[in-house]
Amino acid sequence: MEKKLELTVDQSLTGRIDKVLGHHFDQYSRSQIQKWVEDGHVTVNGQPVKPKHKLMVGDQVAITPEAPQKIDLAPENIPLDIVYEDDDVLVVNKPQGMVVHPAPGHPNHTLVNALLYHSPLSTINGEYRPGIVHRIDKDTSGLLMVAKNDLAHRSLAAQLKAKTNQREYVALVHGVIKQDRGTIDAPIGRSRKDRKKQAIVADGRHAVTHFKVLKRYRHYTLVSCRLETGRTHQIRVHMKSIGHPLAGDPLYGPKKTLPGKGQYLHARELGFKHPRTGKQLLFTAPLPDYFQQMLDHLDRVDSN
């Protein structure tokens, strides 16, 4: 176990325990603190509590964090689909099924392992996420920008924060969407019912997705989604929230869905300003074969 963290609550620290501890111990993410609370690693006055517990003045809080699993991060000679590369940045087209960076349960064979074999990477995002400025889910395919040095990383991260970069995804969803376009503005946070999931929650983080219908099938709709924010599982949660979960999604979709190895979601377009030259760059990646083959199959089914 890591060193125990202790806190005596004063007037400035009252309120929900996960919010208070997330603000006070800002070296840890709020989601990590919520997990510790849920798993019983946080006590108030010697007793475990739930994430919604409200702290009062004088409460004694103790956190005994779990020791992180040791991961030996090693370069691996894994082929990469590199769309663009220079001395500062890489743009890579990640295949479905590849985890972006090592974590408990996925210690190797990740995109980071492949990148380390190929190139030097930035150091800003920690030991296990070198070069990684943003992520996409394991079973989502498509474009990612990667920083090869810290100057590039700071610039690309600032663009993400300022929402000046371009990110467009293509998704196949259940049901026929009637309107041609729309915007989903709903906060996202960890689900209260299942900690593996994200959900629309009142105190979640601001999240906005703009969608446009590309094609309607008999029972499905192909849409493009432009992200204004980049929350975990954002498109998957937002589309489900309007009654159109992603086809093939094992976590948020219905049990009866299209066959495949995960959600039909592809990061097709990525744009940003080059961190050194300031030149605007825009990249696209065609739909992977499995995705296009499913659309062709739906065309054939609908025509019969």
Please describe the structure with a list of short key phrases separated by commas or semicolons.
304 residues, alpha+beta, nine-stranded mixed sheet, four-stranded antiparallel sheet, 20% helix, 28% strand, globular
Molecular structure report:
The chain has 304 residues and is of the alpha+beta class. It is 20% helix and 28% strand. The strands form four sheets. Strands 7, 8, 9, 10, 11, 14, 15, 16 and 17 form a nine-stranded mixed sheet that branches. It has a four-stranded antiparallel sheet with strand order 1-6-3-4. Strand 7 and strand 8 (89-94) form a beta hairpin. Helix 1 (17-24) crosses helix 2 (30-38). It is globular and about 70 Å long.
Q: Give the overall silhouette.
A: globular
Low-confidence stretches: none
Q: Would you tell me the structural class of the helices and strands? A: alpha+beta
| Average of the residue pLDDT scores | 91
Task: Give me the Rg, rounded.
Answer: 21 Å
How big a fraction of the residues is strand? 25-35%
For the termini, the CA-CA separation is 61 Å
Please, how many helices? 6
Total strands: 17
Order of helices and strands: EEHHEEEEEEHEHEEEEEEHEEH
**Considering DSSP H and I runs of 4 or more, what fraction of the residues is helical?**
10-25%
Q: Tell me about the largest β-sheet.
A: 9 strands, mixed
